[in-house]
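haha ok so turns out i had the wrong file open the whole time. this is the CORRECT one, sorry everyone. sequence first:
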Amino acid sequence: MNMVRFIAPVAALVALSACGGEAEDADGKSADAAPPPAQAEPTPSTLDAIPMNFRGGWDSVDAGEFACTTLSDTALTIEPKLLQYYEGAFTPETISQISDDRIESEGFFQYADDRSKESYTLRLSDGGKRLTLSGDGFEPFEFRKCATIREAHLIPSEYEGTWSTYGTCKAAADSLIKIAPTKITWQGKTSNFTKVHYAGPNAIELEDDGQEEPYGIVLDQGGKSGALVGPGHSPIPLTRCGG
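then structure:
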């Protein structure tokens, strides 16, 4: 067999493969191909006010029973030119919009008599339902959107608990009055206190968003009993059923 007839074509193929085409990686892409151009950072735009989608009421994702009320010490209200905290406020001097869901701001934070220069970044997520506030010198805060920051008032603890207007605590559960720190539940309806103030010894006057007129609670026998009083009706005796 003439080996030259076989060796010559193979050598020619090797030479062609060495000279022609670019090397490819395992995915069939050219190893020498230029990487895609880096995405350019968006150009910030200067704003005169905080955008609408950032405004409104917010509260910490870890807020407890007073969440989204004026009693919450983690509530935040964002206005066009103000971030209002429970005890303090940030007033922007500059506002830069980086994207639809991100702004940066420099300004002053005021707490009591202390005033300090601050830089904040606010970023929205979850379709505008979450807000992350970050800055120099502190861990980011995570907030959730509130329908509103509702005005709330705290009832004194000695009035809290479950009460009966029937003289016995064996009455149907939905007929009992349940008084919590910021709300009252009676006959299956829960109302939020909008005013609480002392009306005398062992007596308070209340207003809630379920009643058209104010009413009062008077305690007796060291808080074991009392009466529900209001305009247009005689006092309704109360018997304490539990704390």
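Helices lie at 4-19.
again sry for the mixup
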